[in-house]
Every structure is written in C-alpha cells, then in structure tokens.
Design goal:
Shape: globular
Structural class: mainly alpha
Oligomer: single chain
Number of strands: 3
Strand content: under 5%
Radius of gyration: 27 Å
Largest sheet: 3 strands, mixed
Amino acid sequence: MDKTEKGKSEIKKGTRYFWQDIKAYLGELLDLKKGMDRAGTIKSIRDNKRMHGANAWLLMCSIMVASLGLDLNSPAVIIGAMLISPLMSPILGIGLSVGINDRVGLGVALHHLLIAIGIALVTSFLYFYLTPFGEPTDEIMSRTEPTLLDVMVAFFGGIAGIVSGSRKDKSNAIPGVAIATALMPPLCVTGFGLAHGDWDIALRSFYLFFLNATFVAVATYLIVRLLRFRMKEHLNEADRRKTRLIILGFTLVMLIPSCFILAGVLEKVQKRQAIEAFVKTHFPDAYFPKIEETAKRDSLLAKVFLFEEISDDSLALIQESFRKEVPGASLKLVTIDTKEEITREEFVRLGQSI
C-alpha cells in the first residue's frame, strides 16, 4: 500500500472514531434514563393529580390572582399566579395513564381534571362578574387566538414537566410554571367571556386551553414511552396500533383549527407592517398611535393625525392607494388645528376618543 492509500485509510479511520466519540458523548449528554425513578414518578403523579383539599384551595387562589393579573394587564401578576398553580398534575396523569395503559388511573385523572376546570371557571366567572372593571385588556385578548406557537409552549412545557417529575431529585416548580403558562390564563379568559356574555372570547380561549392540555398530555405520553415505563396492562400489537392511531387522530383534529388561526394571525401581522410602511411613506411627520382592531376581528383601523390641511382630491387618492396596498384595513385621517395650544396628554386623549 502506497503512502496515499495509507493516508486515506487513516483519515477514514480517524473520521469514524470521531463520529463514534461524538455519538457516545451526545448519548451520555442526553441520557434521560440516568437518575430516573419510574416508581416514584408514578406515585408522585398519582398522589398530586387529585383536585381536593389543599390542591383545590391552591387552584382557587391561583385563578383569582391570574384573573387580577389579566384585569390589570400585568404579566408579572399572571406569572405569580402560575407559581402556585396545581393544574399540572391531572394532565400529566392523563398522559402517564395512557402511556402505561392504566385505564383506572386515566378515569381518575380525567375526573379530577374536570373538577379543576369547574373550580377555575366558577372562580374566574365570579371575579369578572362582580368586579367593576370589564374591559378586555391586551393580556385577555392575546388568549383568544390559539396558534401553533401556543402549542409549542404547551408541548415543551409538558416535556419539561414529565422529565423533571421522573427524576429521583424532583423539582416541579419551574416546569409547573411552564405548563401553567399554557393552561391557566386561557381558563380565566373563558370565565371572563362567560361573565360578560361574550361567547366568541369564551369559546376561543377554552379551545386554547383544551389544545394546550392535549399537547401537555401528548408530550407526557411520548416521554413515558421513550423511558419505557412498565405497562400496567399489556397490549397486543393490534391494540397498541389502535391506541397510537387514536392519539394521532385526536392530536391532528385538535391541531388543524390552530393552523388556520395562525395563518390569520400572520396575515394580520403582515397587514400591520404594510400599514406602518404606508403611513411612514406618505405621512412622515404625522402622529400615528397604535393600530386598532375594529368590531370585526379580521379588520384593522389606522388613525393618523395630521398637522396640516389636505385637499379632498389628495385625500381620495391616498384612501384609494391605501385600499389597494392594504386590503381589509381602513385609514382614518384627522387634521389637528395647530393654532390651538394642546398638551401631549390632551392630544393622546383626543386620539383615543376619535
């Protein structure tokens, strides 16, 4: 063998060893089975999934705090509510029970999840019904457009929850916050919609909750099977295939509406960008507050305040150009008389009232 052939052989051998080392390192780095406690995980989820006593009180308090946060439009208060929420365990219990084929455990988990939903809806309904406030804040409205991005929050929160819960040194606080992020605010917003008779808000937010709960359970099921938890009742191949098809079918049914909603959200974002570009091009010196949604959820309104007169012909041309560039949106031009002195606060209040 000449030096060239020998050199190529050494390179191939070195490359093979390199990839073997990388594979071994990644395998050790991402090894979920190290430090795993299967029996402890099952016991912990079973013990915590029951929604009564202290768990019921904690849920009522966390829902009340979350409702206050939504009403005050305060993300910090909403996050505080998530720190004390016990809503994670019943949903993890559903994923675990399906994963180990525990039909009795599945029934118990579903029963206590329904109790948790009932407690949350009654608590949030009473708060929003009795409170003197009632305006839908940005935090409330953001829970009425469920998309694939919300699904990702729920899915990875579910993975974090079951991975953390399966360790010998359990720490459910942070994963619990991740899961509560996806579950609690939508339930509170459903209570808001019911309290104010707004069925559109109520149904959209409850769909978001149900969608997120589904993907938390799916994530739990996948990790349970990946870690090879022992089946309580052994399935034959036909039953196993049937279970997988049911899970896949239900997941797709839940996911499809969120895809359409995401498409609508992306279209709305593009419209907002087009409106901002149009206003900057045609009215660089105008006052341009935020773009508003009209009564029709798919329509946008842009108010632009001008400090100089504009002729009717120019106005007609601008409106026609706007309709062509941003279909499905409307432009409102307001001329401000610069001869009158007006403070910025008064100007902003004027903009909100027009």
